Amino acid sequence: MPLTPLHNVTPTIESLPMQHRTGKAVFLKMECYQPAASFKIRGIGRLCQEYVEQGVSHLISSSGGNAGYAVAFAGRRLGINVTVIVPDTTPGEVQRRIEAEGAAVVVHGSVWDEAHAYALDLCNEVHGAYIPPFDHPTLWKGHATIVDELVRQCPKPDTVVLAVGGGGLLCGIVEGLSNHGWDTVSVVAVETEGAASFAGAVTAGQLVTLQGIDSVATSLGAKRVAARALELSKRHTIIPLTVSDRAAVSACRQFADDHRTLVEPACGAALAAVYEKSDTLAWADSIVVIVCGGIGVSIGKLAEWEHRLRPTPV
User: Fold this and answer.
1) Does one domain contain both 158 and 52?
2) Where are the alpha helices (DSSP H) in 2-161?
3) 63, 186, 256, 268, 299 from 239: Cα distances, Å
4) pTM (global) more than 0.90
5) How confident is the model over 66-91, as a mean pLDDT?
6) The domain that contains 165 carries what CATH number?
7) What's the pLDDT at 314?
8) Number of structural domains, the chain?
9) Residue range of the domain that includes 212
């Protein structure tokens, strides 16, 4: 008997404000409405269920926030212990939200990669199963269900716009497009300028490791993108795009005004491609934006980011 998914079917809505701004048909896949606040629960929920079915009693995650929250949510629903390793850049409010789901939170390292290495060591100590935030075929299969829903909810678009951190969402969307014969639908993969490991890999033709992450979009903070993401860029039309932190945060504010919904700067990066009318999208008449969501945002945080990124008077 198939397991009941831990994620919800999310709506795809037309964005009239974005359509009026761009002159294009813009559809929003509202993954911010997931019970774990982001698309992450699709793949992570599936992987957690598989491990529980195998008899695993402890799940370990490394995450800047959203993946860890999804594992904590899944663990609570499945009745299993969860430990989430976060880097010290993860805000205290995000840590508390993960803990509220019943998970233990351990702070280690200054970037996700260091938290990841510690999580792997911890798995050996407690004999737990590791749930990666983005680099696993089961995660991609789970995220591909977004496209399963899109084909029922909106016309075939010219392109899909999404944010890239480690590349899990990108891998899942491309897999889903292929599953439904939408291979001609391109993907615009958006990162902020201080966290552009995918764009760097595509430019170099090989995986690159960033020296550090310098962006308020901490959910995009993987110094090295999944190898699968780079591999897919050689088989599918995937167009890297970078935007500034200021553009990403501005898009979060505009989106809140337009659609009464708060999202993280990581999600704002994808929205900024549309709000800023990027030349990358000039050719497309119809666009789907994956509104990936995120727990690391509040009205106060949005105001703080806007103040920090305000242009310095000359």
Assistant:
1) no
2) 16-22, 40-53, 66-78, 92-100, 112-126, 137-143, 145-153
3) 26, 8, 26, 17, 32
4) yes
5) 93
6) 3.40.50.1100
7) 57
8) 2
9) 12-38+137-308
